[in-house]
Amino acid sequence: MQKRWVIGSALVAALTTLFSYGNASAENTENAREKLHEVRKEKKDLLEEITKNDSSLKKYTDQIEQAENQVIKIQKQVDQKVVEWRRAKDVEKVYREKYNKRIRRLYQLGEFGYMRTLLSAKSFGQFLARFESVRLIMKQDYSLLKNRMDAAAAVQKKKSELENMRKQQQKLMDDSRKAYEELIKRQEDKKSELKKLAAQEAEYKDMVMEINKELLASGRLNFPFKEFTRNPLDRMRVTSHFNLSGRLDPVLGYVRPHKGTDFGAPRGTPIYAPGDGVVVENRPASGYGWILSIYHGHKDGKPVISRYGHCYGWDVTVEVGEEVEAGQMISKVGNNGQSTGAHLHFEIRRDFGRDAPAVDPLNWLN
Ligand SMILES: [Zn+2]
């Protein structure tokens, strides 16, 4: 007695939940769907950002590597210039000492001694020659010294230029490294945000799935049809057309209507949802091998349902009640059921149920 009461109250609770879904279904459903779409969009944007950041990271690591190579190259040039500068300084030092010595000697000779040297000339010609040579020696010494000093200064200038270049490269390297580290941190944040969004998505997905299943069961699944935006296969190769008046069935060997279009494709080729919708069927079915159906909304007062035949159940990636988006992979091409080779049997039906009117799918695709 006690046990029965417990089971009974659990059932009441379950029914109350279902009833409350049903009660405010229009609003609740729209809310839940909207939330699911929002979360999915946010997730998509975030993924795009993460991908973009990843390529920026690559750019930074390239920059760091390039700057490092530049620094090494410049450092080699700086080292060479340091050697040259030292050599120039040594030579300049020798010359400076020589020059100073000469100046000192001239000074020690004094003006008188200097004059005496000149005056001891035996002729005016000799005097001029001596005078000229003293002047030349001094001038030569001076210009030699000046050249050496200039050379040392030039080397010094080049060296500091190179050092500046190296500093710039070092700065570029440091900046890139800093930017890289900041971006890594941002990427980590984004990835944990993505995880949170995925959890939220799963929650909304479950909620929407329950609502959709309930709406489907009570015949109230109804939203406006949105045009298809892509084909179910990337490469569309028709192997057998839609034909309601009947075609010779390649497997059964007699004439019967062909309610869809066959597209030949290797086994395992991805099948994509051509438009947004809700999965309404996902089960084994005779002839089809397996049938997957998506409700895409109402158009001109009638449901639009796409159906996919000959897949293998284990290849189907969606479940009944699930909201799918245009371009989402839903299954793979198989060779299940009455089929002479791997292909997708694709149908468009204008109502729920197995006897719903079929229309030519090619009028619905690009
Ligand atoms: Zn077919």
| Percentage of β-strand residues | 15-25%
Q: Would you give the CATH topology of the largest domain?
A: Helix Hairpins
Class of secondary structure makeup: alpha+beta
Rg calculated over all Cα atoms: 45 Å
**Ligands, ions, cofactors:** zinc ion
- What average pLDDT do the residues reach? 84
- Using the 3D structure, state the CATH architecture of the largest domain: Orthogonal Bundle
Pfam family, one: Peptidase_M23
Domain M23ase beta-sheet core: 257-351
Signal peptide: 1-26
GO molecular function: metalloendopeptidase activity
List the main descriptive attributes of the protein structure presented here.
2 domains; 366 residues; Dup_hybrid_motif; PcsB_CC; binds zinc ion; alpha+beta; hydrolase; coiled coil; metalloendopeptidase activity; Glucose Permease (Domain IIA); 58% helix; eight-stranded antiparallel beta sheet
What can be said about this structure in brief?
This protein has helices spanning 2-23, 25-119, 124-217, and strands at 238-240, 243-248, 255-258, 261-264, 270-272, 277-285, 289-299, 302-309, 323-324, 329-332, 343-349, 358-359. It is α+β, with helices and mostly antiparallel strands. It has two domains: 1-220, Helix Hairpins; 238-363, Glucose Permease (Domain IIA) (Distorted Sandwich).
Helix and strand arrangement:
Elements: H1 2-23, H2 25-119, H3 124-217, E1 238-240, E2 243-248, E3 255-258, E4 261-264, E5 270-272, E6 277-285, E7 289-299, E8 302-309, E9 323-324, E10 329-332, E11 343-349, E12 358-359
Helix pairs in contact: 1-2, 2-3
The structure holds zinc ion.
The site of zinc ion has 5 residues, from loops.
Domain Peptidoglycan hydrolase PcsB coiled-coil: 97-158
Organism: Thermoflavimicrobium dichotomicum
Pfam family, one: CC_PcsB
